[in-house]
Amino acid sequence: MLAVGLCAAALAGCSATGGKRAEDRAKRLAANGSAVNTPRWTFAMVTHSGAGDTFWDIVQNGAKQAAQKDNIKFLYSNSDQGDQQAQLVQAAIDQHVDGLIVTLAKPDAMKAAVTKAVKAGIPVITVNSGAEQSRQLGALTHIGQDETVAGNAVGDELNARGRKHALCVLHEQGNVGLEQRCAGVKAHFHGTLDKVYVDGTNMPDVQSAIEAKLQSDPSIDSVVTLGAPFAPTAAKAKQEAGSKAEIDTFDLNAQVAASLKDGTLGFAVDQQPYLQGYEAVDLLWLYRYNKDTLGGGQPVLTGPQIVTKDDADALLAYTKRGTR
Amino acid sequence: MDVVGAGGDERLAPRSLARRLLGRPELGAVVGAAAVFLFFSVVADSFLRASSMGTVLYASSTIGIMAVPVALLMIGGEFDLSAGVMVTSSALTSSMFSYQMTANTWVGVGVSLLVTLALGAFNGIMLVRTKLPSFIITLGTFLMLTGLNLGLTNLISGTVATKSIGDMQGFPTCRDLFASHWTIGPIDLQVTILWWLGLVAVATWVLLRTRAGNWIFAAGGNADAARAVGVPVARTKIGLYVAVAFCAWISGQHLLFAFDVVQSGEGVGNEFLYIIAAVIGGCLMTGGYGSAIGSAVGAFIFGMASKGIVYAQWNADWFQFFLGAMLLLATLLNAWVRRRAEASK
Fold first, then answer.
1. Is A22 on the interface with B (CB under 8 A)?
2. CA B9 to CA A105: how far, in whole Å?
């Protein structure tokens, strides 16, 4: 009320550009209702996401849209602590869900819980991480990007762009997936690759650490961030440090798409998180409905897709609505 | 200081400059800072470059802005564990209000100031009303704010990060105030450094030259004795929490206007950096002793150590270990110098 009053009272205080109004104007199309008349099954998704991670937002968006189409009740929970993630899986088993989607970022911690779900007759699909362990634990299939393969793709792209000295920016110490990405880049990149650890929950620290690294070694000609939110910050650091390095990144969001378009960023490698959520729900539905498994149980890869300036225009609208 | 009492009471006799310096809480920290500075000047080639100093100062200032009120609060005998996420709350409020209301960003900044000050007042009033330890009260606020940041952001924007407000009216002028930077020769200076130095100056003046400053020392030293001689302890403590909130607002607006988009999960853990800076700078964990300048030196030590390690190009896997070891050594040196100083008084 106060807010509306404030805005109405001082029309001068309103912005004529951007904001919610522009967003509403942009999306006036909405199609609701499910496409099938199968029973209303309940699927649960339990991820290793930390709190407030934009990447998992997109995964959830994909899952929710598939759930709506397939007449599924969709439950989501997450914890970045392995033991707590396992407890959440246990909670899903207790609720007798009809299907389970889990990530195996910490496979050892998840082993017992996932095996138990399979024994209880719940079809399990793993997404995002854990391609190697998925089969062993009895999951139907795995949907996601192989981090090493994605890293390799970045290494190849850097070679193609004639880069000699790259910097890998890790925003979380001890995260296996991030290390795999850097190692993947290193394996295919012909130049030298340095690593720098930054505190991902503290943006000024991310900026100043990259700045410091660029100042200390002017020969660095490309910076690779491992998460979309860190790419624009790296671009700022580059500017402050007066470096000529090209900024490239893993993953995509609206800011990255815009920066690709205006040339601030070189390229992004997208693992299409929307697909990971959407396909997981859809494949569980197919299994329930028709006992189908896609790819004969082989991992279904959702990436890596290299996105450059040429694609940015088309992607911008999708990133804004939170599906790319 | 004038010399009125020189002939009479020996307590009023003027002390030499050296003696007065030795009595200052930040002396040890300054020696520690000098040591860290010298160390990295030797081991890291690019550390001494002027452009590097701009980076180190920026890193120091983003911690330093919050370390100032946190130091005052510690002198006043209390902690604030919600200070880190409060910065994020402040940035989120500002961004989401502007976006959702399609309002000029200045309106969002104003609303955010009110909301953030209210959060600080909530901490302070809860503390003096319930008489529970500040550790518990602000831990509660910390958890609630962490949840609110995520929950409200997701509820309102539909994602866990805010939408970009970079194309909205008022943004450029807001950025000038909170996140501009300018180049002097090879040095790129961020405006946060000015905010930081300004806050240190104001806080030092309040502590050493005003009645409120005496109240803060008294409330932290011995609250009961202070109350007995008429110090408004409750009001002082509430005021200190509001001061923390005010600085959280400044930091939050910097985050927003420097990076345009705010991630709702940020800020967790930063409260410890502020407390660390205050403690390195000579604040006692038990209250009643410390200084604002000390907190600035502490933040500077932290900024130098965390960026110096990068300049030195040491193996990145060991980053946290080196950082911890540097801080411990700087603090040990600090404590040793202070003991020597007190012994020689």
1. yes
2. 72
Residue B287 above 90 pLDDT?
Answer: no
Quote the pLDDT of residue B125.
97
For residue A53, what is the nearest residue in chain B, using CA coordinates? B160
Q: Report the alpha-carbon distance of residue B328 to residue A285 in Å, rounded.
A: 56
Nearest CA in chain A to B87: A202
Cβ atoms B89, B142 nearer than 8 A: no
Facing residues of A223 across strands?
Answer: A167, A247
* Interface residue of B45, B60, B66, B107 to substitute, partner A, most A CBs within 10 Å: B107
How many residues are listed for chain A in this entry? 324
Cα(A58)–Cα(A61) distance, integer angstroms: 5
Does A219 contact B at CB distance below 8 Å?
A: no
Closest CA to A251 of A228, A284, A222: A228
Inter-chain CB proximity B319 and A173 less than 8 Å? yes
Q: What is the secondary structure of B151-202 as a DSSP string?
A: HHHHHHHSSSBPPP-TTSTTHHHHHHHHH-EEEETTEEEEHHHHHHHHHHHH
Comparing CA positions, the residue from A124, A126, A168 lying closest to residue A150 is A168
B144 is written with which tokens? 């609630």
Nearest to A57 among B97, B99, B160 (CB): B160
* Chain A residues whose beta carbon lies within 8 Å of the beta carbon of residue B273: 202
Residue B307 near residue B40, CB atoms below 8 Å: no
Q: In angstroms, rounded to a whole number, what is the distance separating the alpha carbons of residues A139 and A284?
A: 11
Average pLDDT score over chain B: 88
Smallest Cα distance from B5 to chain A, Å = 50
Q: Please state, in angstroms and rounded to a whole number, the distance separating the CA atoms of residues A2 and A308.
A: 44
pLDDT of residue B122: 97
Count residue pairs from A and B with Cβ separation < 8 A: 186
Q: What is the ipTM of this complex?
A: 0.72
Q: Which of A49, A56, A211, A236 should we substitute to test contact with B (largest number of B Cβ atoms within 10 Å)? A: A211
Mean pLDDT in order along chain A per 10 residues (324 residues): 52 72 61 75 91 84 93 89 85 90 87 91 92 89 90 95 95 82 95 91 91 92 94 93 93 90 93 94 94 86 90 87 85
Contact B154, B160 (CB under 8 A): yes
- Between the two ends of chain A, the Cα-to-Cα distance in Å is 34
Question: Is A8 near chain B, with CB under 8 Å?
Answer: no
- Determine the residue type at A108: D
- Top-ranked range on mean pLDDT: pick from A68-82, A161-175, B132-146, B319-333: B132-146
Could you tell me the pTM of the whole model? 0.80
Residues 64-83 of A with CB under 8 A from B: none
Cβ–Cβ under 8 Å, residues A52 and B160: yes
Nearest to A140 by CA among A125, A155, A152, A154: A125
Interface residue B175 vs chain A (CB under 8 A): no
Ranges of beta strands (E only) in chain B are: 181-184, 187-190
pLDDT of residue A3: 53
pLDDT at A321: 83
Q: Is A57 on the interface with B (CB under 8 A)?
A: yes
Residues of B in contact with A16 (CB under 8 A): 169
